[in-house]
Model the fold of this input.
Amino acid sequence: MKFLRFLKHNSRYFCKFLIWTNFFVFFYLMIHIKEEDKIPVSLLEKEGVAKLLSDEALNVRSDSKYKFKDFNPENWNETQKFTLKDSSHAYFKEVGNNLCYKLGTDFKASTSECICKEKFFGPHCGIPESAWESHYKHYKSSLRKLKPRKTPRRLIHGLQVNHEFDLFDARLKSLQDTVDVYIVLESNYSSYGTYKPLSFLEKFKAGWLSEFQDKLMYVLLPFFPKAGETNGWYADSFLRLFLGKSGMKLIENTRDDDVFLLLDADELPTVESLMFLKMFDGWTEPVKFGFRWTVFGFYWLKAEDPGMLENVPLLGNLINSAKTERLLTLYVACTVGMLKHVYGNNAMLLRRNVWSHSLLKDRLANYTLTHDKPREWTMGDSPHYAGFHCSWCYSPEGIRTKMASAQRHDKPRWGDYPEKMELDYIESLIRTGGWFDGKHPFIKVNMRDTPKDVYAPQYFLENEDMFESLLVPPGDRV
Done:
């Protein structure tokens, strides 16, 4: 105690005391740290640590091995092949003498027959509401022809890409257990004919979506068709022609009853609609999908165009009818057999639905010798959609890219008007629901008042932070 009182009243000695104390502590630690290095380590422990390090290095190397890492686009058509395989998964379960679709059946309530969950219908509970409400509910003869498959069809999905990165990411992750293989077409020319980078390939080579790359067949269109210089519609159609004819050569072990699906990058199908095509025999082809059509995001719904009377000055103001939703219907699916034998693998002919054209008469006659005659039908109506068409659903910069890339004869071509390309102007359209012609042709959709499965695809809703710009109007964002 005397020593402490002495230090308290003699600050000079107190400072010296602290300095020497720190020195001895530091010296002690240095000695014991060196001694720790001398602690014997068993051979097994060394081998264990080495094994952990080796495993970690192996994991890093395996993660870095993905299809497009060293991909050479110059020989894309020589280095890729995908072999379709059958699934051994059981999608149906017996209940009494009935086969019930597992995803659509309430097995607790099913004793002697299939009792369906909400939004599934039919004797096997395998018809989603998109197919039921738009077709099978009204055509009992078509319903009776449906038969469950023991082995599901394989699904080949073709699409062309430009800069739709977010939508492509969502497509692969939401359809990962549904689509067997993708044919992805990219060109180093826009639909207008200007040179552009291979943005998708660059991202693939950097490891983007590496876990899905084995099922991506990349088709490169390295030139702009000569006829497209004077006919923009030809340029647009040629992309799908090239996709089908070149892409299908990369797929092996196909069968005529496999499904070919053709969509644009902003058209997103529902899983339930695609699984129906895979799991049942008896539906006819080609298949038209009914899409919910939104613009800029899921909060602006495309309205029907005004009628003739509503466009008449003064009279239109008197009528002033409420806007109604416009359903987008597109021919998107057929069997691989029809694509090959009737359309000659030209996917554009599917999109145009020209199977009855006189130029295809001989092909059709040969096809129908062993297959049913084509009969188109529509899967999806409002509000029982087969998918979502999110048009112009990009950032303002992305919208400007789309405008600059548009083919030259889709008039009016808004990319030809410099004032329409201004980012502030594009942002105002997104905010107000306006269009480039000065009109407001959209219906504002309230997310809180709309059923979730109607408002947007499930994957977007589950990842709201990632897709806030598409789910939440600009004025409502925090």
Summary: Residues 28-62 have pLDDT under 50 and may be disordered. Residues 11-37 form the longest helix (27 residues).
